[in-house]
Amino acid sequence: MDVPVLESEAEATTVAGAPVPSTTDPLWWRSAVIYQLYIRSFADGDGDGTGDIAGVRAHLGYLKELGVDALWFTPWYASPLADGGYDVSDYRQIHPAFGDISEAEALIREALALGIRTIIDVVPNHISHEHEWFKAALAAGPGSPERERFWFHPGVGPNGDGMPTHWVSNFQGETWTRTTNADGTPGEWYLHLFTPEQPDLNWNHPDVRKEHEDVLRFWFDRGVAGVRIDSAALLVKDPELPEVTGDEPAGQHPNTDRDEVHDIYRSWRAVADSYPGTRVLVGEVWMPDPVRFTNYLRPDEMHTAFNFDFMARPWKGSELRESIDSMLAAHAPVGAPSTWVLSNHDVTRTVTRYGREDSSFAFATKRFGTPTDLELGTRRARAAALLSAALPGSLYVYQGDELGLPEVEDLPEGTRQDPMHFRSNGVDPGRDGCRVPLPWAGDHPPFGFSAGTDVQPWLPQPEDWGRYTVDAEAADPGSMLSLYRAALTIRRTLDGDESFRWLDSAPDVLCFARGGGFVSVTNLSDRPIDLPEHEEFLLGSTELVNGQLAPDSTAWLRAQH
Ligand code: NOJ
Q: By alpha-carbon position, which residue is closest to atom 3 of ligand 1?
């Protein structure tokens, strides 16, 4: 194993003539631009229609040119892919369709040589039903120590026919599945907050705790710079298994955000801190209360967590202003930077969401046939890209958003894969529409995603995606890609500055100053506005009209300071 050294790369100041950002900065994560790489759909190096590590390695130059500091890989481990890899059967193996461990090591090394760190996904709430532990638990039967790593429980009623609780799944429907005993009789039930293929782990069990710390070490030893923690608030359950009433005091819900969960992250932080260079913990924490949310970011817990509040808000000045204020205020006492996220592999693509009458995001309101004005959505997404990149903290870019890809809502019948769609009986379109393979070049599918023209990507791409290819957008100074490249270059000049100050403006205009005289102004009103006084116009999401900033636009300026 050739282990990359995170703390001594500063010597390599150029690679192929391009400057390499320092990888030695212990605070790199506070202002980093992190590209979310959904490996199945990024680039297919071996021509089987599925994205893979070889495809990523072949396109590291693209990521370098885009200007990102780190890659977050959604799960790439061995898995039956019942939930796109969030059902891990072995953390120490890469899914064969994606590559193998030595390729992962090579990727981590090659990315780092370009100044790009690697963050991996860890899914501690559950594992795959094909994981050795779960297979052993089923085989060992009721009352066995193997079952104690999970939540096996007898059913309610004389025949045990009733589920132990009526907790509702995050994917709709039931959270318990009944097993069958070796003699064919109906057996115990097991808990799964997601699909039956994702049994929940029992975090009161020492094996579960130790195994996850070992998994962290396994990957930190291979040079990864951090982990994204899936469903981070769900791990601890009330062993009494009470029903959810909705009236539970904070920290005492039966399965979400229980106070005891924080101990787990304290011990993970200790593991991370035992490594040289800063290895970061990034939480996926869906939590409406900003204080309960930032509890996860206390100095001895995670470094950052996704700010979904901003992502879920509609395109409205007052809403976005309130979100920025409340997030910055909630983060300040714990000393953590906020994150800024416009989308990810679970939610509606940004240009589509912002093109709708209701431009907020909620899983419950995702429906087929929602009218969408893509031109308007794209215009707003451009403005939002600059707005979010201007805010203090780290920035997440979901692959394809830099190309302005829309949600694919008309996937052909039989091609959808997402359990969210099936568990809603087809009412929820699911998340496949934001996971369609990237278009790189050419006029026809697979648009350079796979080498060769006759390969069928695992999810079909729309025929008209030629206009969104990397090649087409790279050649067009007005494209989303050109905007992102320019924005991330300018953002780098902020150089880790964390200052933020609102400037006077109308309520539906978001205007603020950062260090070095940098000013960002977003016009969410319905008429053009004058720009604040400035020395230099740096970048705009639209062209100025008679010197004014048009509606649904952001401009970046340099003012005297
Ligand atoms: C959150 C992940 O982002 C999502 O894709 C997954 O389905 C659930 N957690 C369950 O692991």
A: 346
| Nearest atom in ligand 1 to 419's CA | 7
Q: Give, for 188, the enclosing helix (H) or strand (E).
A: strand 186-191
Low pLDDT (below 70) residues in the chain: 1-23
pLDDT value of position 5: 54
Q: Of 122, 123, 201, which is best to mutate to test ligand 1, by the most ligand atoms within 8 angstroms of its C-beta?
A: 123
What is the pTM assigned to this prediction? 0.96
Q: Is residue 506 part of a domain?
A: yes
Report the half-sphere exposure of 49 (CA within 13 A, side-chain side): 9
Of the candidates 424, 456, 483, which is a domain's last residue? 483
Q: 277 with 7: CB under 8 angstroms?
A: yes
The full DSSP string for 379-421 is HHHHHHHHHHHHSSSEEEEETTGGGTPPP---PPTT----HHH
Using the atom order of ligand 1, give the atom closest to the CA of residue 87.
11
Mutate to test the pocket of ligand 1, among 38, 127, 230 (most ligand atoms within 8 A of CB): 230
Residue whose Cα lies nearest atom 6 of ligand 1: it is 86
Closest residue to atom 4 of ligand 1, CA basis: 346
Does 82 share its domain with 161?
no
For residues 64 and 142, state if they share a domain: no
Range of the domain at 529: 497-558
Residue 105 lies in a domain: yes
- How far apart are alpha carbons 34 and 489 in whole angstroms? 14
Q: Report the separation in Å between the CA atom of 193 and the middle of ligand 1, taken as the mean of its atom positions.
A: 11
Ligand 1 site residues, Cβ closer than 6 angstroms:
83, 86, 123, 194, 230-231, 284, 345-346
> How many separate domains does the chain show?
3
Separation CA 294–CA 303 (nearest Å): 10
- Looking only at the bridges linking them, the beta strands covering 77-78 and 70-73 are unpaired
- Per the rule left: phi > 0, alpha: psi between -120 and 50, beta: everything else, 335 is left
Statement to judge: residues 165 and 314 lie in one domain: no
Interval between CA 421 and ligand 1 midpoint (Å): 14
Q: What is the pLDDT of residues 129-148, one digit of tens each?
A: 999 999 999 999 999 999 99
Mutational pocket test of ligand 1: of 175, 191, 346, the residue with most ligand atoms within 8 Å of the beta carbon: 346
C-alpha closest to that of 310 among 296, 324, 330, 297:
324
pLDDT by residue (tens digit) across 52-83? 999 999 999 999 999 999 999 999 999 999 99
Position 474 in a domain: yes
